[in-house]
């Protein structure tokens, strides 16, 4: 069986497992991205939706895995593996959105917010606990990878032919070539862009605005503190593991490794990336699940105020668009971490920057290849 196919199947399974964990790590007052008052966290519809959602994820894992394996027997293993991830992603979101709409429908029909005083509570005082920015030691691995790529290129440059391979097919054979001078400066570029952007996000994320749940602001503040610190470190882990791929590419392009090794080493390098990221995400998920459970036991349904019903600003339950909100980053309603306020002008710029990085990283070998 193709190693790439097996690896992609593992990634697809991890995606399903992560989607399962969302019901544990999200605050109890935002089930499936729907804002609800504290006295509704035990509403029967939420338990029913959660059960159906988990059942759907099991069906996704079994059916998509079986269909992908069957398709791979008669077509390309590579196409089957990437199709499996794409289909899994679409179906996971479909089940999430279905759960989101079911709860939102009952919430609107039964008037869960009728007669309640809605407020927006944020922490701006000196009592805010210190949220430390990530240490530079978390950035060090990415910087060492960047230095290694540049050093390898400089040391190998005199011995390289005028045209060097910069893209390799599934059989490990080169199918595109680039001028060696062009490759020398274009290979480090994606590493610089990825590392710079992710470190900037990790550096500023701990001190973004903290919107609190009025039902238990103290516990919610602690939950967000842990989430900010954990997510900042996760971003730097992602930068390091992503840059490992660029390092391996540099070893191939500059002739340190034979081109045939791409067939065996790529799955190994990617497997290491997946394991490191999965371990980091599992740790952060367990940490947040425990904190959410502690916060839920302290909810006070008799509070005079409840968090404002802001569902109208969440497109599809995942995209936040609120031009009146000055915040650039807001906590996600689907999974761990933060998402951009696309109603903020700077949010639009960051979103475009992400897209450009992806395009540049993907097209550089093609643009300069011959």
Automatic annotation (TrEMBL):
Tell me which UniProt keywords the record has, alphabetically.
Answer: Membrane, Transmembrane, Transmembrane helix
Tell me the ranges covered by the DUF1648 domain, including all copies: 144-189
The family database entries (Pfam families) matched by this protein are listed as: DUF1648, DUF5808
InterPro entries for this protein:
DUF1648, DUF5808, UCP032908
Kindly list the residue ranges recorded as spanning the membrane: 6-25, 53-71, 77-97, 136-155, 182-205, 234-257, 263-284, 349-367
Q: Which domain of life is it from?
A: Bacteria
Q: Which residues form the DUF5808 domain?
A: 323-348
Cross-referenced PANTHER family, in alphabetical order? IMMUNITY PROTEIN SDPI, MEMBRANE PROTEIN
Q: What is this protein called?
A: Membrane protein
Per the UniProt record, the source organism is Dictyobacter formicarum
């Amino acid at each position: 069986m193709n190693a790439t196919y097996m690896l992609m199947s593992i990634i697809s399974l991890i995606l399903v497992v992560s989607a399962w964990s969302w019901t544990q790590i999200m605050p109890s007052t935002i089930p499936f991205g729907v804002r609800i008052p504290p006295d509704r966290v035990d509403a029967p519809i939420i338990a029913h939706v959660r059960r159906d959602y988990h059942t759907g994820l099991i069906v996704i894992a079994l059916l998509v895995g079986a269909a992908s394996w069957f398709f791979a027997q008669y077509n390309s293993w590579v196409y089957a593996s990437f199709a499996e991830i794409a289909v899994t992603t679409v179906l996971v979101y479909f089940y999430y959105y279905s759960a989101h709409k079911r709860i939102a429908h009952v919430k609107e029909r039964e008037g869960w917010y009728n007669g309640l005083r809605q407020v927006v509570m944020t922490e701006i005082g000196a009592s805010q606990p210190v949220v430390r920015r990530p240490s530079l030691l978390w950035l060090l691995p990415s910087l060492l990878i960047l230095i290694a790529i540049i050093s390898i290129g400089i040391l190998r440059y005199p011995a390289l032919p005028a045209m060097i391979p910069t893209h390799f097919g599934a059989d490990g054979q080169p199918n595109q070539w680039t001028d060696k001078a062009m490759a020398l400066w274009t290979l480090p570029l994606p590493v610089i862009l990825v590392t710079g952007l992710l470190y900037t996000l990790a550096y500023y994320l701990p001190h973004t605005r903290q919107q609190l749940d009025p039902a238990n602001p103290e516990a919610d503040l602690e939950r967000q503190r842990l989430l900010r610190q954990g997510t900042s470190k996760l971003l730097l882990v992602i930068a390091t593991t992503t840059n490992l791929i660029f390092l391996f590419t540099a070893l191939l392009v500059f002739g340190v490794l034979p081109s045939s090794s791409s067939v065996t080493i790529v799955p190994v390098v990617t497997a290491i990336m997946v394991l490191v990221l999965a371990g980091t995400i599992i740790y952060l998920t367990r940490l947040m699940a425990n904190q959410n459970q502690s916060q839920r036991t302290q909810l006070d349904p008799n509070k005079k105020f409840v968090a404002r019903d802001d569902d109208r600003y969440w497109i599809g339950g995942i995209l936040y668009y609120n031009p009146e909100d000055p915040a650039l980053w807001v906590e996600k309603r689907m999974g761990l971490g933060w998402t951009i306020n696309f109603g903020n002008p700077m949010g639009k710029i960051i979103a475009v920057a992400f897209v450009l990085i992806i395009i540049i990283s993907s097209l550089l070998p093609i643009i300069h290849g011959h």
